Inverse folding.
């Protein structure tokens, strides 16, 4: 008879349950400690539980683009708005289309809620336009000077003098209409002193022959009238200043100067737009101690920028300036005196941390393909969310109580193992959700609470599968310790297949859905993975250890493993009959 090989475990070996328990206990302690160290001791709540703001945006058709409101542009706008809000660190912001021309934006209550609300509907159409003329914000009593690139300060002063006005009242680079910011790219020098027009210069202009006047272009005359009558101190005129003007046409725009006064600009056609900006960010300049917005242009944008700055550098103020126009408002009108060819630029002046980061954020993620207006703004109170959370927790408590009652009534002592395992799963789920709220901005919403409640049944089902496999082995006549080990491979396969199906369903649901339903899918998938961890590293080792105790090993009636109650068969291995040493006499014939 061959001797058994050394080093090979006999069938039914119990393994090392202590090592598995040590691993999961260390993980629990580490997660709990990390939760307290991070300062996020509770999961972050979504808008339906913590309150927040729900904004409905309606897309508007642009002049000359009647078919701009379509599915492609709406989906593009959703992606840009979502990236903008998430770029501010707002957790669980929901952005989705509703119908043909509406977008719903749900912003949970938080520190960046107001900031995010200001950005969601901002179109962020960025244009670089050459400056033709600058004026005070109020309406002018006389028509503005002709917007010609060849117009000089002397000719402007001539017109002013003929009208009986002091020429020094004309806007100059040093007046209140000076630039709000400065662009610095490679090399940027201070502008040379440009003397304000005076009466003497006007007299010299009178001595020179004036060109023959030409009939004004009707379009130019209309633009002059718009510029002269524009009152930037009125909000309705500011918002309607450049509406209907194409990027290839001159336009008028409003903005504020360094002193915070409203100023108006007469601007030429667009030379560079926001699509030519590759990246932008608001940063603190350590040398000057001010907040600036840096921009990196694409290769095509860098060529455009170099061309326009080269052309403007040869002109006199204010026509050596270009205006940076964001959504129809001038945010900066820097001057240049040489072509800037580095492919990058920065905007500075008048920024604080929030305004610099806001502008950089919007420029980085691009302009919206459509214009939007706020159709409605709804505030969800925390009181309503608290009632929903309370109702969800009550439902979860009722479901957990029913599961415990069933386990105690049917499995008796084994219910203790199931309850302790459920507590371990709950601890892991809670700490991980709290850490995910701090780490990736995960916020617990009502569907996610429902997913956690459903997970109670999934976890309990894994225990039941294992317990029934153990009972089947005992019914076959085996004792508890080998029954625990022989039942595990069969139960393990069933648990893995069941959890795989649940996780696959959760993954598919997470991918194909949007909004709050993703919270349900995420929680369901997370708890399904934790079910595998708990069953393998906690439930099975605990069952192995308890099988060595007298209460369970002897099949106490309250252990849930009583062979009599389970209808166990006689032992599989019966004792052999003793062989008699007395010889048997042969039967007589």
């Amino acid at each position: 008879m061959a001797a058994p090989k050394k080093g090979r475990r006999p069938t039914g070996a119990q393994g090392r349950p202590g090592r598995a328990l040590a691993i999961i206990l260390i993980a629990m302690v580490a997660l709990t400690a990390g939760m307290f160290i991070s300062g996020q001791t509770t999961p972050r709540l979504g808008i339906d539980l913590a309150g927040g703001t729900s904004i409905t945006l309606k897309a508007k058709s642009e002049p000359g683009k009647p078919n701009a409101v379509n599915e492609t542009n709406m989906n593009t706008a959703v992606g840009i708005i979502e990236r903008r809000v998430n770029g501010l660190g707002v957790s669980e912001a929901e952005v989705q289309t509703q119908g043909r021309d509406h977008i719903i934006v749900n912003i949970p209550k938080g520190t960046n809620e107001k900031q995010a609300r200001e950005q969601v509907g901002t179109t962020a159409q960025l244009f670089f336009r050459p400056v033709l003329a600058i004026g005070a914000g109020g309406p002018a009593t006389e028509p503005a000077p002709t917007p010609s690139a060849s117009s000089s300060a002397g000719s402007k002063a001539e017109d002013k003098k003929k009208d009986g006005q002091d020429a020094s009242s004309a806007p100059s680079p040093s007046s209140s209409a000076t630039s709000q910011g400065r662009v610095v790219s490679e090399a940027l020098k201070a502008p040379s002193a440009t003397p304000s027009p005076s009466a003497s210069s006007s007299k010299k202009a009178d001595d020179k022959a004036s060109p023959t006047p030409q009939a004004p272009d009707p379009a130019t005359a209309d633009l002059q009238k718009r510029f002269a009558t524009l009152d930037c101190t009125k909000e309705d005129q500011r918002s309607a200043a450049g509406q209907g003007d194409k990027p290839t046409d001159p336009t008028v725009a409003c903005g504020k100067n360094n002193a915070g006064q409203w100023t108006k600009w007469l601007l030429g056609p667009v030379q560079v737009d926001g699509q030519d900006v590759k990246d932008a960010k608001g940063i603190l300049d350590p040398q000057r101690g001010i907040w600036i917005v840096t921009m990196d242009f694409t290769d095509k944008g860098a060529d455009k920028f170099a061309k326009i700055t080269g052309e403007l550098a040869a002109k006199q103020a204010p026509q050596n300036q270009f205006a940076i126009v964001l959504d129809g408002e001038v945010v900066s009108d820097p001057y240049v005196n040489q072509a800037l060819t580095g492919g990058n630029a920065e905007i500075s002046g008048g920024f604080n941390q929030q305004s610099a980061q806001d502008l950089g954020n919007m420029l980085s993620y691009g302009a919206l393909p459509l214009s939007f207006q706020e159709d409605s703004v709804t505030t969800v109170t925390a009181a309503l969310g608290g009632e929903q959370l309370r109702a969800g927790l009550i439902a979860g408590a009722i479901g957990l109580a029913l599961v415990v009652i069933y386990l105690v009534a049917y499995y008796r002592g084994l219910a203790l193992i199931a309850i302790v395992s459920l507590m371990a799963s709950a601890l892991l789920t809670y700490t991980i959700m709290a850490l995910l709220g701090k780490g990736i901005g995960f916020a617990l919403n009502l569907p996610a609470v429902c997913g956690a409640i459903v997970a109670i049944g999934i976890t309990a089902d894994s225990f039941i599968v294992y317990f029934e496999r153990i009972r089947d082995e005992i019914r076959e006549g085996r004792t508890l310790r080998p029954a625990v080990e022989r039942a595990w491979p069969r139960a393990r396969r069933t648990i893995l297949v069941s959890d795989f199906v649940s996780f696959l369903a959760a993954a598919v649901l997470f991918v194909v859905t949007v909004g709050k339903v993703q919270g349900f899918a995420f929680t369901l998938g997370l708890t399904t993975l934790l079910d595998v961890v708990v069953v393998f590293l906690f439930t099975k080792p605990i069952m192995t250890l308890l099988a060595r105790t007298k209460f369970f090993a002897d099949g106490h009636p309250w252990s849930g493993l009583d062979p009599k109650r389970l209808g166990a068969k006689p032992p599989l291995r019966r004792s052999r009959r003793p062989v008699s040493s007395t010889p048997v006499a042969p039967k007589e014939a």
Notes: The chain has 17 helices and 16 strands.
